[in-house]
Structures are given as C-alpha cells and as structure tokens.
C-alpha cells in the first residue's frame, strides 16, 4: 500500500498526495456500529473537482492521528524525501497534524502542505472538500517548506497548534 | 447590493470576496422550470468549511458570464481598486472568466484570484466547493497580481483560456 | 430505450419503474449553459438506499412534463398495461403529473404510483430521494389504482392538482 | 424532551414522529474523536422534502438501539398509545428495531411504521432520506398494525429480522 504504482510514477511535475488517515477518511461500519478510517477519499474528490493538473496518490497509512507515533513520522518524512515530485500534499488527522508538520519541516526544496478535516469527507456538510481544494492550490503557490491548511488559513509548520477548547487551528 | 455593509468594512486584513454570478450560484426555479443565477453560495461554503480567517462578501452583480460586458468589467475593476483589503477573491461565470481576469490584470499591490465552477455549488457533486477552497488559499499564498483557479490549476491572468471543446481551462 | 432488457424481465414480483423525465432527472450541461433532462437517477438512488426488494427500470422517454402530449400518455398507459409486474412506479415531471395520473387511472389490478420532484435529484438539497422512497413504499402498500406522491402526501389520481401559485400539490 | 409541545399538539390528522436515536441521527464530535447519537434529523429531512402533510416530532430518547431495554420499549409503547394521532412513524436504531416492533405490535387502531438507517443521515450517501420518505408514505397507506421499513421493503412486525451477516433486513 505504501509504494506508488508504476502507472503513477511518471508525474514528476504533478502533485504527490500522501494519505495517512484521520477523520477526513472516516467511514461508518454499521455491522460493527463503529466509525473507522477507511480508504482515502481524496482521489474521488479530485475527480469530482474536475482536476486536470497531474497528481498521484500514495496511501502510506490509515491511522487516527492520535495513533501516529515517531516511527510513523519517520516513514512520512522518508516518503516526502523519496518523492520524485517537488510539490506534496499530505492528508492527516487533526489531533497531531501540527506535530507531524514540525517533524517534517526540513524538506529541502520541496513544498509540503498538510491538511485534513474536522468532520468526515463522506458527510454532506464537511470542511473536507474545501480543505483539499485549498491544500491542492497551496502546494502550487507556496515556496519550499512545510505548511498546514485548516480553518481557512495557511500556517507555517512550527507556528500552529490545534486549540482543543475551540476545536480550531490557530497561530502560536 | 453592490456596497459592502458597515458591519463588514473593518476586516482590512481579511479577504474580500466579490461575487458576480455564474454557474456556481445557479439555482432551480421550478415555478418557471428554469435555472437562474441565485444568491451567492460562498458565505455558506465558508461557514461549512469552518473558516476562521476574516472575510467579507460584496455582491456586485448576478450575471451569467456571457452577459458580462465591458461596463461590468469596469465595475469589477473599480470594486477591486476601492477595496480596503489587499487580498481579493472573485467568483465569476466560466465563459468569460479569462477575459475578465485580463481586464483587471493591473491590481497594484493586490492579489486577486478568480474562480467559479462548471456545475452549480448546490449540486451534490460539483467542482464549486473545491474551487472556492483553492481560491481562498491562493489569495493568501500568491504574490500581487491577478490569477485564476479552475480544473485544479493556478493560472496567471492573460495566460489562460477556456477550451470550449474539452470544457476545461488550459494555459495559452 | 423503451423496452425492458431480458436481464430485467424476470422480476414479476418486483416493482417496475417507468421513467419519463422531468425535473428529477435534470442535469447541467455547462458547455451549453443549459439544464436538460438527463439519464434517470432512480437506479443510483435505489442502490444508495440499499434496496433489496427486486426492481427494474424502463426508460420510456426523457421529457419535461410540459412537452408530454396525449400520444406520450398513450405510450405510458401501454407500458403500464404490458408490464409483467403488478406494482409500478412512474417518475414524471411535476407540471402535468396530475394529468398523466388521470389519463392512466384505469390500471386493472395494478398499483401505480407517480412521483417526481420540485428540484433535481442531483442537488444537495432536494425532495427527490424522499419522494422516490415514498413512492417505492407506496407501490407495496396501496391497493390497485393510480396514485401520486408529492409534498409528503399520497393523493388519488383525479383528486390532485399542482397549485402553481404555491408550487405545491394539493387535493381538489 | 419527551413531551410534545403545545404548539405541536393540534395535528391529530397528521403523523406523529417518535424519535429514539440510532445510526440515523449519529453525528461526529471531533473534540472527542467520537460518533454519538445527536439531535433528530427527521425535521430537517421533512422540510427539505417540502412536506405539507401535517407532522409533529416527539423526541423520546437518544440511544443506540443496543442500549434500548425493556423499560425503554415500555416507554415507546406508552408514547404510541397516548398519541392523539392514528398514524405514527418511529425512528430507531437497526440492531433491535425488529425486537421493538414486536414489543409494540398491539396498537389498537393505530398504524405504526418503524424505520432507521444503516448509515447516518448526515452522510452524503445514506439510506436515511429514502427510508424516511418510505416510512412517511407507508404510515398513510398501511392498515392498523405495526410495520417496519428497511432495505426497500415493508415488513410486518414479528415477521422480520436483521441478518447480521449480510447486514440486511429480511423476512423470517
């Protein structure tokens, strides 16, 4: 699951999308009366949005962000560093998104944008599609470095936290 | 309809949104069996997306973009030039979006991003929410100048057209 | 388009769905800046609703109901009378739905329910899915005869009209 | 929460809706990374469906159906028996819906229809709206007794179970 397919690997000018799980991909399993991280939705979102800019999805892990540990962050960093593309979008759970952003702040000449959502993309009303659109554009517009987009705002890695009381991202 | 309200006018650090109509705002009037440009959807989209970054909506006109003429483009340019904000998002019909972008290419030190959608925001499946998210982020990320976002791609004003055969935007 | 396929024809105990067009199936064609009656949505709606009861779709015509004339009503009546199933759901535009219901009021021992919607099923907010669910249940519950379901209410054919001022169906 | 308001109580000819919780009303609380039964959605669904037939909502409890016990079933039965309306729709979780239906099979001259959904109504794709439409029509069409609508089918109380392997309702 964690290696891009041959079919995908030609798009060096495009945007690499690395998915790690989080609320954005949550789906409901009635049989277990439980919500779990499901397959990434971002491919469907990009098709629905009629995106013609080249992109490729690399499914790296399917975790709640509270379960993402330092070993996982190392894997994310390696996936970024070994990507043939210069522009990378990462979908990630919100609880530790700011921490992962900081852990991968050194990107060389790559532009990396993390995003996710506070409610699942499969909901009728969600911040997911807006955030994916925002991050997809931001990877094309921002200089090299690691960035985060949530609550309608672009943040620099290391300068953002999730405020647990307001359930919103804000600058430090 | 075309003047920002007093309540809105303080947000100089925020993003001014100028709405001009287009498919993105189309609504169905069963009584007339007709689709027409309705009230702007962008405010609802930003609320659903849990946007905390300040923004204000200025409803300038409600037109199909085929009906937008040079006098309208002058009004749009004046609205841009008289805006207190440096960052401006314009929603616009797709047929003449590239033409309007070119007509307002001189923005001084403002960053202006035009977007719209190929199907109405009120549809269950549409490029509208993705495009609004993208444009909202792009206004924060791009340098001064006029830009256009459609089909997943950031274009420079003057370097983009809508290909009527493929129904997609592409670089000149 | 107007003949059921062989694959479909075994389901005599199931519900036959005859589609005639109307707002419920309207789709937006950006290339022509126009809304037109598209392919029937009802199959997708039934799949999304996890329907296990057998059904088959017969696409009879794709018309705005204002364009449906007496020859069309004859075709609809013939489709009803030649159906192997006893339970029939018809999707139809709203403007002349009451007239068509009356024209096919004689059904022998068949239960026929007409429905449609005041806004397209492809909209995020629409009466379409609710109405299809209602009509699908009503075909199973009602005695022989022709019925109409709109605005949350079951009406008998001949005892209903669309009030053009309120844009609602009401009993005569 | 469990008493109808004075404003509601006049609609004796209408449909009483008793909500008990279940997947249909589940909402996501990001702050707790958890899905829980939220406020009933059915009022919004009926408004979106442009329902003109009178109805009133009585919020009786907000429970996963696995948590509904015999005391709860007694409360549901009492709510049915004390309702001024003859036609009653109950929304209920799916896991014990068949059991509750059986427990309230004696309704005197009332028509009672239970429904729910296998995925939350707040999802973009769900069986919820279809099922609500179906149950709303079925209460108008069926004779006195207790019924259940799921998976596109009307079942008689006592003659239906949820098949846990296929995750579908089927006749006994």
Automatic annotation (TrEMBL), chains A, B, C, D:
Transmembrane segments: none annotated. This is L-asparaginase. It comes from Natronospira proteinivora. The keyword Flavoprotein does not apply. It holds the Pfam family Asparaginase. GO terms for molecular function: asparaginase activity. SUPFAM superfamilies: Glutaminase/Asparaginase. InterPro entries: Asp/glu_Ase-like_sf, Asparaginase/glutaminase-like, L-asparaginase_N, L-asparaginase_N_sf. PANTHER family: 60 KDA LYSOPHOSPHOLIPASE, L-ASPARAGINASE. Its EC number is 3.5.1.1. Residues 15-163 form the L-asparaginase N-terminal domain. Keywords: Hydrolase. The lineage of its organism: Bacteria, Pseudomonadati, Pseudomonadota, Gammaproteobacteria, Natronospirales.
């Amino acid at each position: 699951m964690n290696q891009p397919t041959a079919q995908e690997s030609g798009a060096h000018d495009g945007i690499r999308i690395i998915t790690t799980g989080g609320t954005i991909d949550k789906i409901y399993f009635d049989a277990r009366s439980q919500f779990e991280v499901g397959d990434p939705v971002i491919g469907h979102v990009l098709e629905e949005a009629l995106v013609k800019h080249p992109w490729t999805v690399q499914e790296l892990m399917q975790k709640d962000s509270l379960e993402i540990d330092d070993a996982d962050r190392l894997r994310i960093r390696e996936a970024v560093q070994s990507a043939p593309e210069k522009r990378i979008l990462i979908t990630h759970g919100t609880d530790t998104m700011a921490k992962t952003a900081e852990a991968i702040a050194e990107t060389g000449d790559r532009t990396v944008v993390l995003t996710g959502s506070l409610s699942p993309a499969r909901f009728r009303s969600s911040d997911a599609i807006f955030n994916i659109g925002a991050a997809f554009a931001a990877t094309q517009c921002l200089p090299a470095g690691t960035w985060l987009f949530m609550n309608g705002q672009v943040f620099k890695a290391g300068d953002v936290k999730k405020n647990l009381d307001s359930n919103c991202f804000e600058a430090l």
